[in-house]
Sequence to fold (245 residues):
Amino acid sequence: MSDVWQVLVKSFGLLLDEPRLFVPKIFSTLTASLFLVYLISSPSTISQMNPYNAIALMFGSLFMLSIMGVYSSMMLSVMVKSPETSLYRSFIAVMRKYSNVLKASAATIAAGLIISVVFTAGYWFYSVTGNVMYLVFAAVFFLFAVLIISYLGYFLPVTLVIDSSFREALGSSVESSNRNRKVVASLLVSSFLLIGLAFSSAGFLEKLGYLGFVVGRLVSAVVNTYIFTVSPTFYFEQSGSESFQ
Fold:
């Protein structure tokens, strides 16, 4: 537990010393929030579109939002490794790994869709049959899927920058998580607690309208920045010799 506390404190201190680490996540979150606000405020524009165009817009939007999330997380890993690295240099460093960015973004969407389809199917069967076991199955599947993906991909924002391919990066992340399973499990618990607090505050702020929605997203961005600073901080403490290719 001392290792966990040390990593959490060190990550917090790093953010205090280098507040520009907040920029990637805040930028990606603000961009995504403004886009969502636009979609919500102009439903007629989408409803008038050709169904195929609407589906293409939906998946294209999901892919772009996923890319921004992956890209900003990888930029954080670069800057945690070398805090003196500028935002521009970290952006360029991640751009050199564009193939990993695209594959990780696609994998994120695929995993999200699979989880959503199974959960929705379970809920649908529950609503039709009234059998609560379908709902229990959907909830348990959702919980375990999120936990397993979070555990196996905990170090992925780091390994995506270090390794030359997505497959190698995923393998390295899984190996690192298994090698430090107790610490990773503890860090995940702390991460989910922080996400829960951020979600609660965001839900309250959203009652204030569009401005509250954006402010709530900013709160989430700050929390996510801290969460995605913790994993590379611990990773580089365990393998300080790793360098970016």
The CA atoms of residues 6 and 61 lie 38 Å apart.
